[in-house]
Design a protein that fits this description.
The chain has helices spanning about 10-15, 60-70, 105, 115-130, 140-145, 145-155, 165-170, 180-190, 200-210, 230-235, and strands at about 20, 25-40, 45-55, 80-85, 95-100, 130-135, 195, 215-220. The chain is α/β, with parallel strands linked by helices and about 250 residues long. It has one domain (about 10-235): Rossmann fold (3-Layer(aba) Sandwich), CATH 3.40.50. Strands 1-2-3-4-6-5-7-8 form an eight-stranded mixed beta sheet, sandwiched between helices. Helix 6 crosses helix 7.
Length: about 250
């Protein structure tokens, strides 16, 4: 494929919005902030949006990276992003959500899980709090097994396997998610403490082990129904999630 020569004006516009974050394996290229007006419970709220790309090549010649994009089918790959609100970079008090992508819950509004509820509720809590960020982690579908494998796991769940058993029956561990890239981006955006919205102690542990200052934890339970009660019970009883008063699940 012939090398593309970009107009100098185009490059100057894009380069101003690209940040290089070096990692042990290569680099993360963080793009943003970008104004993103969002319809949140009937009101338009303006967030700042970032997206990042993991790459083996480490260079500050961003034209080299941009030049490759047309020949790499990124539409078939997944990229993560960040939605921030308020003065997230420098504000004294901020809350964050590390949200794993859930195609069925986030997009279709599936009641088999509580992901769609947690996505919207965390955005609402960030706006009400005044400062915060939602990290939307694209390679976390089905706790890291991918959408196709998740569909197979759902079939097993319809045949009396719980979430953990279904993943393990397909040859996966219960939870293979990794937060290292998101943590690198968080460090690039903010150095002050954050409170984490989660019921999962593994997420809290990942931030603390990376040396990030964590000021606290905000629980995020809700949207309990007959369709996801067993799923929520499994989160608590088998995956170690911290139970909240809103969840009427036994701990037998």
């Amino acid at each position: 494929m012939a090398e593309i020569k970009f107009d100098s004006k185009v490059l100057s516009i894009l380069e101003d919005k690209i940040q290089l974050i070096k990692t042990e394996q290569g680099a993360i290229y963080l793009v943003g902030p970008i104004k993103l007006p969002v319809n949140l419970y009937g009101e338009t709220v303006e967030f700042k949006w970032y997206c990042w790309l993991n790459c083996n090549e480490v260079t500050e010649d961003f034209e080299r990276i941009i030049d490759k994009l047309a020949s790499v089918n990124l539409a078939e790959l997944q990229q993560s992003s960040v939605l921030s609100f308020g003065d997230f970079e420098y504000g004294d008090d901020a809350i964050i959500r590390m949200h794993s992508i859930c195609h069925t819950g986030d997009i279709f509004g599936s009641k088999r899980c509580d992901c769609g509820y947690q996505l919207k509720q965390s955005m609402k809590m960030i706006v009400e709090h005044g400062t915060g960020a939602l990290f939307y982690l694209a390679n976390h579908e089905g706790r890291g097994i991918g959408l196709f494998s998740k569909a197979l796991a759902y079939i097993l769940q319809e045949n009396n396997y719980d979430t953990v058993e279904a993943n393990q029956a397909l040859g996966f561990v219960d939870d293979s998610r990794n937060y290292s890239d998101a943590i690198q981006v968080l460090k690039a955006l903010r150095s002050k403490p954050v409170a984490l919205m989660t019921n999962n102690p593994k997420k809290l542990e990942a931030l603390k082990n990376a040396g990030l200052p964590v000021s606290g934890r905000e629980p995020l339970w809700g949207d309990v129904s007959e369709y996801n009660e067993k799923y929520l019970e499994t989160k608590i009883n088998r995956s170690g999630h911290i139970s909240g008063d809103e969840v009427n699940c036994s701990n037998d």
